[in-house]
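WARN no homologs supplied; continuing
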Amino acid sequence: LRQRPNDHIVPWLKLEIEFSAMRGVRGGGRWTEAIQDAVEKFLPEDKKSFLIVKNMDDEWLYQAKFDEVISIGNNVIILIAEVSFTIIDNQGGLIKEFEEIRYDSLINGSLIKVKSKGRYGLCNIDGDYILPCVYSDISATSEGYVLTQKIERSKTWRSSDSYVYGLLDQNGKTIIEESKQNIAVQANRIHVVNNHLHIVYDMSMNKLCEYYHGESLKSGYRTISLSRFGYGKYSQWGVVDSEWRLIVPCHFDVSVT
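OK structure emitted
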C-alpha cells in the first residue's frame, strides 16, 4: 500500500490484517512484537512523513518507508526500500544504512547480496563489504558455498570479453582466487576446469584426481583419462569411485565400460 507522505490516513486503509499473514516479513516466520518494537525504536520521533497502516484495532502493522522487512535470527533486522536498505539490531539501533545500494538476497543466513549500477557485491550482517559491487553474478551452491563471476573486458577489439570465477566458503572466506578457470560445486566436491583439464577437490581443497575425459559406469564408478585425446595408445585410463577417489591409477591404454 502506498500513499503520498503528507496525506492523511483514510478509514479504508485500516485493514483487517493479522500479523502472521503479513507479506512484508521474511526470515523470522512471522511479524513478532520484538521486530515491531525494534523497527518502531529505529523510526524518528516525527513520523508525519511516513505512512503507517493500522488494523481495525488501531494496531501498528506496516511502515511504508520500507517495502520489506527481513529478520535474521533474533539479532538483526533488514529494512528494505526500493533503492536502499538499512540494517538495525533487535533494539532498534542502527548498524548500517545503504543509500543507492539495492538489497538482492540473503545467502546462508549471514551474507547479504547487494546490487549497484547493474553489478553485484557481498557484505556481512554488520554491513561490512566482503566483495565490492563489480561482479556480473554471485550465487550460492546447494552446499552453501558462494560462486562469483566477473566480466574481464577485452583491451583490444580483436578479442572478446572473458569471465573470471572465484569460490568462497559459507562465511565469505576465499577458497579459490579469481581466475579464468570454470568452477562448480557438486555433491560436496569442487570441480575446476582449466584449459579442458578437470581437477576434482574435496571441500578442504585436497586434490582427489584430474582428467581430460571421463565415462560413467552403472556401478557409480567412473573411468578417467589423462590424455587430451582420450583414446588410442598412451591414453592413460584409470578408475575413480563415486566419491571421485582414484582407485586405479591412470596407466592403461584402453577403457572398457
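Helices lie at 33-42.
OK
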